[in-house]
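Q&A log
Question type: sequence-to-structure
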Amino acid sequence: MAQPAPIPDTTSTGRVPDGLRKRMTVPVLAFGGILMAVMQTVVVPLLPDLPRLTGSSAGAVSWMVTATLLSGAVLTPVLGRAGDLYGKRRVLTGALALMTLGSVMCALSSQIGILIVARALQGAAAAVVPLSISVLRDELPPERRGSAVAMMSSTVGIGAALGLPLAALVVQYADWHTMFWLTSALGALGVAGVWWAIADSPDRGSGRFDVVGAVGLAAGLICLLLGVSQGGQWGWASGRIVGLFVAALIVLALWWLQQLRTAHPLVDLRLASRPRVGLSHVAAMLTGFAFYANSLVTAQLVQAPKATGYGLGLTVFETGLCLLPAGLTMLLLSPVSARISAARGPRITLALGAAVIAFGYVIRVVDSRDLWVILVGATVISSGTTLAYSALPTLILRAVPAEQSASANGVNVLMRTIGQAASSAAVAAVLVHHTSPVAGLPVPTLPGYQLAFTLAGVVAVAAVAAALSIPGDRAQRRAGRPAGQVEPALTQAREDA
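Response status: OK
Response body:
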């Protein structure tokens, strides 16, 4: 008797799984996320020596960081929308390819102009995480989605923790170009892995790409973030900084009106204004501010000279090793975060994460002299960041339609980037105004660091309040809509437009 033909197992998208490729989806995407964070971090150990190595000024060298920040902020929502329209696999591959091209350019050149352009290209990789999270929504069944999204969110911290000691080790024992050849090889591996393992998404947005909206958003964000990042150097009351902020206000106001009037906007502002989405973006900005202060201050604190009375005088490599426990903690806590979100909801996980961040800053304020206490405080903050960052994309995925998931997560990452830029400016302003001379040079004082910790802790408490203000799934169900369904009024408004 003939045996019945086996029925192929299918995913939630109705496609037949492709064996090994299907099993490699999460590892390949996680590798891309870690690689993105490593690329953003590896230049840090080089910054003190780059003026000598490139024959340029310290101000010019600082643009190797600023260019990546600006391009990443601009390209994240743009590439997210492109992924929704043209396919996430295609755009994700392109983002990793631009990152790899930038790394090759850094490996081949010592000209500061070329290096700045290359670092701007690498900023495209900032879109990797939101695009990957959207892919996970399309490819994975619901029971696996939460833990995978949490893992993808934690790759930012894991890559940052790995990148600094790796770069310091390479710079210490090899030519600095070797580091970029290594990252180029890893980038090529990431591009090949995504092209091989990731399937094209069946969920595509409709309409045309909003070129005018993309240009307007880019112009407004460049003015805003350039003003925030350069305010300390150019002077907050200088004509250039004031002009940038005024230009940002005008351009973004005009962009807002254009987005409301166009039939196919780059960012669906009506959807973003819903409490479940808008408050998630606010919480992302506040969490980004609170998290980034820890990364900025810890490295400076442990490298401060022992003559300050609090500094440990560690090398860059030793500093990188100090960040490893925090990165490993993020890796281990990502599945825990997914379980909390499954049991209590992502907004509770977000609020809990922000509260843990605030508690970590309490530890940092109480004692920032002993290495073990510094490590404990930094690890606690990273633990809270893991909880918060893994909950944010889940909140977005539950609140927006599938065909807008990449662009909505891209905006959420943009808000985190704005928070980090504001944190960098605020911390720098605090430390500049709290210095004392050591060996003839101004060095931040311990009370200055403690004030920066206090500021970040207060912002973390504000993030708790924002998280608890987000309507939960019960409120959504009482309104008669399942999570992720667009409000009928908004749907009708878009159709009318």
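Response note: The beta strands are 435-438, 441-444.
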